[in-house]
Amino acid sequence: MLLWSRQSRIFVWVVFAVAVVVIFLAPIATVALAGFAGQWTGPLPSQLGFERFEKALGGDDLASLAVSLQTALVASAFALVLGAWAALSVREVPPWFRRVIDAVFHLPIAIPSVAIGLGLLMAFNERPFLVGGTKWIVILAHTALVLAFAFSSVTAALERLDPAYRQVAESLGAGPGRVLLKVTLPLLMPSLGAAAGLAIALSMGELGATVMVYPATWRTLPVTIFGLSDRGQVFSAAASTTLLLLLTLLALLVVGRIRGKAAVR
């Protein structure tokens, strides 16, 4: 072991705990606390209340929250279907072609999301592929950004999958479609659940590409939060951010529960 003494291990754990608190927990706690603040001129906020949250749960903010959830669910579903289909399709291709496909699917996360948004806006702004100015261009942008994670998750799961399952099913007379539906997909459900959770979390917080393409009728909550912060309404932005965090965690819990049931089956 690199750390021989008990004191050294304790020191490392303390440093790690402090880093987690300072880098991760403290900013989240500060944002949540700011959502209750009427003003913050000293070490701690004052005039605490629920006014900011009441406003965030009504009007345009609530509509943006619903838009974010719908976008995340639809984009994640598209990404799972496309990612799983691509991963299953490239299993039998030559290794060099598989590497090319892998690079193509990971390209959207290797370049700035703003570039993705601008590219989609320019590519789909003319007929017959006119989706600019509609909700579908936002969903398309989110799908492109989370597709790589679905593809990677299913690809990794397929590499770990014992081919004996498929071989036994085929020896019993099952066709390719039945093997896929009755053997392969059930075994992939835990990985698909993990990919869905990650895709939803990433989509719920996506801003860079969204701010380039969103129409006024389909504004996600991160865009609304950015607008509030830009106008100096940081406490309202903090309340909306807290709700976004809670909704994302709730969605992850639901996906995790579904994933757990699928794994048991």
UniProtKB/TrEMBL annotation:
InterPro entries: MetI-like, MetI-like_sf. Residues 65-256 form the ABC transmembrane type-1 domain. Keywords: Cell inner membrane, Cell membrane, Membrane, Transmembrane, Transmembrane helix, Transport. One of its GO terms (biological process) is transmembrane transport. One of its GO terms (cellular component) is plasma membrane. It is a multi-pass membrane protein. Signal peptide: none annotated. The chain crosses the membrane at residues 12-42, 62-88, 100-124, 136-158, 234-255. It is found in: Cell inner membrane; Cell membrane. CDD domains: TM_PBP2. Belongs to the binding-protein-dependent transport system permease family. This is Putative 2-aminoethylphosphonate transport system permease protein PhnV. The lineage of its organism: Bacteria, Bacillati, Actinomycetota, Actinomycetes, Mycobacteriales. The gene is phnV.
